[in-house]
């Protein structure tokens, strides 16, 4: 119809929703509300009518039953009248024995009261005894649970100690032994703490067992995972010190062999130099008298003298370096022959100077 629909947010009242309505919308709303209310009232009346019909039907059925019961009651009343007449006769006998029964009933009532009192006391004592029994059974159950868990925990942790020892018996994983033993000890402490906490709870026995098994299983899985991580860490970070030492020793042996070869070469060179200087020394002694007579000797450098001096200086430096090399391994008498006793540095210098001088003099005489 093109009319605007009034807005009515959730939780607002009827007064708020109908405040801004125009008269046509408000009349429509009022008619619809009255019509809906009439329909509800009609439905309620129909339901009440059906319930009333059902109630009347049940009342009719019950009235028929009551009529039958009244008929049977009438027959029973007639029988009762006949029985009452017989009862009157018997009541006369009962009245005669009433006094005796009265005294007997009094004694019986007193006895029953005493019996009930004793039964009440005995029932209270039995309740206390049953409560004590139940407490002991609960304590026994908790004790058995604690002991069974203790035995299983000891067995599991003993196996954990053995497994840790076996896994760390190799050199690669031996550094992780203390950490694994510490994890096993921590697992023992945490399992005892969990067991004590669960048993102190007031839950039923089966719930305590399930909760204890779940928490202990979770703790053991976590500890096993941590132990595997620690073991893998130490296994991957392992360094074989002996192997590295052997490699270093092998390198040192190779260096020692090279030094020995260098020493042998130096000894051979020193021996050849001594063999070369011996005839020069004899020649120099023969010419010494002639040199003393000469008043002036012309000395001039030559290529042979310079070559000899450079060779001697290099040999002298190599011998000095060899004198500072520390011994790496004590050589045996079978491997190294007996060396000649070395001369002092002063004698080597004097001998070398004499050799050079003789070479220079010989060269000057030849010229």
Automatic annotation (TrEMBL):
Give coiled-coil spans as residue ranges: none
**Mind listing the UniProt keywords for this protein, alphabetically?**
Membrane, Transmembrane, Transmembrane helix
Identify the stretch(es) annotated as Disordered.
323-352
Compositionally biased residues, Basic residues? 339-351
Membrane-crossing residue ranges in chain numbering: 214-235
Source domain of life: Eukaryota
Protein name (Swiss-Prot/TrEMBL): Brambleberry-like isoform X2
State the organism named in the record. Answer: Clarias magur
